[in-house]
Amino acid sequence: MSTAEWWDEARRVAEDSAERVRTLGRAKVDPTEAAAFVHRFLLRAGLIIALEPQRWLREPTGRPYWASLCEAPDVPYRFDQRLSLLFFSGLGQPSRRARQLVRSQIGDVPYLGTGLFDPDTFESDQTEGGAPAMIPEPVVEWIRSDGAARLATASLAGLATGSECWDSSEHVHDPECGRGDRLAEAALRIASASNGDDRLLVARLDGSLSGLDSDVLNVQTARFRIALIGLASQSGPEPVPLLDLRRTVRVGVAAKSGVSALVEGARVEFKAAFDWNPAKGQRSGDLQAGVLRTIAAFLNTEGGSLYIGVSDDGTVTGIEEELATLSDADPRDVFEGRIREALKNHVEPLPLHLVELRFIKEQSKEVIRIDVLPSPGITYFVRKGPDGRLQEDVCVRDGNRTLSLSGRARDQFVVRKSGG
């Protein structure tokens, strides 16, 4: 069975069994949600099987991990409940101590990162006493049988070897990624060019790939294909956890032109609002802090463009609702004034000539574009900490993320930026 055939079979099994999903607390289940739920379980199980050669997952008696897991356990858990324990309390749990609490049921397992092993909203809604919605019995048997085990050879056969070059500035975005063929090919190139540096591999996968697709099962497949490459290509005794692939490949449709054809990256960032939270009908300091941190990070690195009124997936939402909260004859002037006042209060030194703000039209909606030039010196994002004291954060861009530096990394950045 080829890799493509395995992903297709996993999809077929999920779709065929969706109507048989049993839930806790819902009279009727949306078939799309149910299929996505089963599909995630299949892909998680396949990923665990494929990682068996890494020997990161260890059964206390030393027997082969997956074979031991599939046997009838001595504790009163159904097999799929035991898998839930493995996924959510084990592989998705960053605390080693917390993982030890379930060691008798799932053995010694590492933390593999966020996203793939976090309960989805559907799973969380169905949770009662730690047991999510039950997957149908035929699917349990398919996972336990040869059906899931075939991923171990089918998907690992394509892992790259050699030293194909990957330009660290390259970014691959696939606006209609399907099951992730193009993204998986790029991930293989990244793995090949990382030369055994597992942390570099994980960082490049996070910062260099992005994709969209309107089909949730395609999106899940693309995420797991990247995860399989990112984990199975590692060579260390313990895995470097993957960063959140839910932001790397997202459900959505890209526009063919304009702002939403752009992709978030080192020099592009989208924010749906400046500080207005429509769900709560009030202003949010956290939203404002996110905008200001991004601007400070652009100033500290290579500059960039921040769009307010555009969601993470490139959908243009506009700022009309936020403008409507400003009771003034010229709300745009007031809006710009509020942004610049926030910069004056929270960004030091004040970037007088480095920040340009414009109102633009996109898909008949109003958007703010903030263009930021890099600062020759160090810029600090100043805010109150949990103890009420002012703290000065040094923010930088790392791929499509904004990071606050601390410790030695902060010291090294300050020395380098200061010309030391």
Fold and architecture overview:
- By secondary structure, the protein is of the alpha/beta class.
- 42% of the residues lie in helices and 15% in strands.
- It has 17 helices and 13 strands.
- It has helices at 3-17, 31-50, 65-70, 79-91, 96-101, 103-106, 121-126, 137-144, 146-149, 151-154, 181-193, 198-208, 216-232, 285-300, 320-324, 331-346, 407-417; strands at 172-174, 209-213, 249-251, 268-271, 276-277, 282-283, 304-308, 347-348, 355-362, 365-372, 380-384, 390-398, 401-405.
- It has a four-stranded mixed beta sheet with strand order 4-7-10-9, with helices on one face.
- Strand 2 (209-213), helix 13 and strand 3 (249-251) form a beta-alpha-beta unit.
- Helix 11 (181-193) packs parallel to helix 13.
- What do the pLDDT scores average to? 83
Helix tally equals: 17
Q: What strand line-up does the widest sheet have?
A: 4-7-10-9
Q: Helices and strands, in N-to-C order?
A: HHHHHHHHHHEHHEHEEEEHEHHEEEEEEH
N-to-C span: 57 Å
- What is the strand content? 5-15%
Estimate percent helicity: 40-55%
* Rg for CA atoms: 24 Å
Shape: globular
| Largest sheet descriptor | 4 strands, mixed
Structural class: alpha/beta
Low-pLDDT segments, ≥5 res: 127-131
Q: Quick one: how many beta strands?
A: 13
List the defining traits of the structure above.
single chain, 420 residues, alpha/beta, four-stranded mixed β-sheet, four-stranded antiparallel β-sheet
